[in-house]
Amino acid sequence: MSDATAPRLVIRIPAFLRRLDPAVATAFGCIVLLLLLGSLYSRSFLSPEYLLQQLKVASFLGVIATGMMLVILLGQIDLSVPWVVTTGAMMACAAAGHGAPGLWISIPFGVLCGVAIGVVNGLGVAYLRIPSMIITLATNAVAQGLMVVYTGGFSPQDEASRAMRYLATGSVIPGIPNAVLAWAVIGVLAVWILKRTTFGRAVYSIGNRERAAYLSGINTRLVTMLAFAASGGLAAFGGVLLAGYASKAAQSMGDAYLLPSIAAVVLGGTHILGGRGSYLGTIAGVILITLLQSILSVMQITEAGRQLIYGAVIILMLLLYGREKAA
Amino acid sequence: MKDWRYWLSEQQGTLTAIGIFVVMFVIYATNHPAGFSVNMVQTAANKAVLLAFVAMAQALVVITAGIDLSVGMMLTLTNCLASWIVVGSAAETALGVVGVLATGLACGAINGAVVIFGRLQPIVTTIATGAMFYGAALFLRPNPGGSVNETLADALTGRLFGFLPASLVVLTLVVLVIWVPYSRSVLGRAAYATGSAETAAYMSGVPIQRAKFAAYTLAGLLSSIGGLFLTFFSYTGEAAYASGNAYTLFSIAAVVLGGVSLMGGRGSAVGAIFGALAFRTIGDLLFVFDFDPLWQPLFQGVVLMLAVSIGAFGLFQVRNRLEWFG
To answer: Roughly how many angstroms between the first and final C-alpha of chain B, as a whole number?
Structure first.
């Protein structure tokens, strides 16, 4: 009797908070913490200019991490990011060096080169059933080899086209950099694809249990291949943006994006074995990583110290909530 | 099946690797401009031994169905460390060598602890710890430099009795001292059992966690031996990001060529060593046939890609499509 009449102690949590993944909440919490830490160190840390600059830098990683997220949702991984980024940048710049028609096709050409590498990855993973970790390492090596042959081992002389520079550094809407807009467009598309299309739902179901997805009539191999192609294209687009930002491509420009892109996705709560994760989390992860890098460089820590802290922080954060269930 | 058939099917990968290596080396040696000579063998051995140590390290981890993407960075770190402490008198040098090996063990133990007790995925873990090891290497050697006890270096990269490359002797010793006892011990067998069927291994009371921990730790030790040898060849320490990554990549290629299954549970470190020797020889074939060295990275990449595609032929024998999904 008394059970029914006694006022039950229910803490009212708003609906949107209840649905929030704890990992995503943690990631956003860490962002706030980093901002507070940074503002203790320097006043300008919370200024709109600085934050917008951070968002611009984050958008390069954001574009690349979007592709990585698609692949991780499948339960696979794409380790070919470093040289796909570089290939995209170099090929776009190379196309830009070929006169007027080259200027027009420079951006699509760079992206298409990335898609091509992604298709090779996808064919290997989906149709030949090679572990994604291995085949993507191999295509990474091949892409590197191709670029070394193409450039002769030096930084290429080609400059980024004006469109590429405008895309990375200009702003159509005053105050908002184009790179951020590009990331926003890609982000909205990604959310729509993941939430509202058969393809997106198929990606989640393959990540959960590929065998079941296959038996329920999903063309799992095609979906896997398309996801890898998209990942390659997005990584290359990230490279195009980076080349536009720096106004040229460089040999090892992609090396700095492999660990951050994986870390951003995983820190954002996407399960590394696939099947679970939200794009909101990835956004949080990308901003988190970018802020962390920025704070480390603002505090004038040497490259050595940055690498050490960076690796340690990623492992610590993963230990907080990225653990697998106990067997 | 008879006993020898079991043995043959277990050693199939290793034997194939030895076969590939012998064929490649014969092509290499017969076309070498200087001809087959003691000097040529010594140079080839010294170059290949580095990769062989890293490949052994990778093989130990891959057998447990894991992967270690930090082996190259452990090699770089221990290389930088060795360029500081493996100097001076005989006693100091000996202490230095011990220090380098202990560092390797510690790095491997960190990997093992995070993967096993932290329950994180090996890929992400070892990429992140790799970044840390690289940071430490950069801290030790912001610029390339340092030195090493040259008497020891020359002794270990030279020849014994005038014809036997000392580096190969050390490699053989390492196999005899580390791999042979390990693979015959409970931990070694447990590593194989864990790699082929973890649940079954658990139910049979196999010490899964200890086996994995031992594999990662020994991988650190073997990488540090590779780092020592890198210092002996180059006389310096250098925190080179690209070369560290290349060693990680090549170690995987060597493991695949050496018949170690990436799914775990099959293959041996000896196979991985021959895979490494074969991979190095294939890379050097380009020089023998007078190609532009610029093509070497592409060529090695294509070889790696073909090597990993070979495993896909098993798909054609699948009777039930559901077996695709493992």
So the answer is: 26
